[in-house]
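Let's practice the habit of predicting before peeking. Look at the sequence and jot down your guess about where helices and strands might fall. Then scroll down.
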Amino acid sequence: MRRRAFLFALLTAASAPGYADGGAACPPAAEKPGPEAVQAGMRNASDHGFLWRVRRDGRTSYLYGTIHVAKADWMYPGPRVLAAIRASDTVALELDMLDPDIQDQLTQGMQALGGPALPDPLVRRLQQQAALQCIPYESLARMIPELQVTTLSMMAVRRDGLDPAYAIDSVLAGIGHGAKKNVTSLETAALQLKMFQMGSARETIELVQDGLEELESGRSRSLALRLTRAWAAGDFAEMASFNDWCECLNTAVEREMMRRMLDRNPGLAEHIDSLHSSGRQVFAAVGSLHMFGPDGLPALLAKRGYRVENIPFGTTQRN
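Done guessing? Here is the structure:
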């Protein structure tokens, strides 16, 4: 049982496009909230996810674990997260998706990527899944195969109210820009896009085939629901034991994919440390799976001499 394509979606900041034709059988299209809805959302928001305070050199910064597919009422930061943002002068994200330069780099980078031709049976299955999700296949076909199946995996949970349009990172970018914070990207668009491309045509075909099997069986949906529920509840134990229940590390290719994604952690930690050391007070928001284990960002910053303290939100969280 494999969960590769959805892991790409959960662990990377690049957003999938939002498609829906509005038909009764289609997943609901994400709705952009108006000013009154935003005010109400901010007023009634609860804290979700995972938050740490990190201190060194007389300054305080924060680490916040996010998800890249979420529900509309999770978008708004709760009181503890909002207080951390307000106490910081810099909002650091994997990618600032509101930065026009980042948007251009992603567009150009995706156009420049080349991929192998897929066997006709896989193309037909991709077309079928695109039709189910009300996504024009012509739009998907311009992407490399890895991005096609990843996009479908992200969009397939819209019937459950989960949508990449509600990605927590994008909302934090908007709050940071609106508050005139210094908003910065911890990575480059090229680095993130590189992760999507497998090393050989065989691996690409295997990834697409596995992703389609997960979509068709409903297993990718089950993984998404379990992972996003853990994030919403701030369930440390569930997130920390992800490798034990995800069934996503069964083969050499799966383990290599996870290694490539999480090997970014030292670079992320170095960039956060550089910002903090330069005199900044940083609110660094990164996908939650980058936060756990001995190579997670809290552990890596502790090794750099930071005092790291979890800020619990509820009863399911623990240090």
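How did you do? DSSP finds 16 helices and six strands in the chain.
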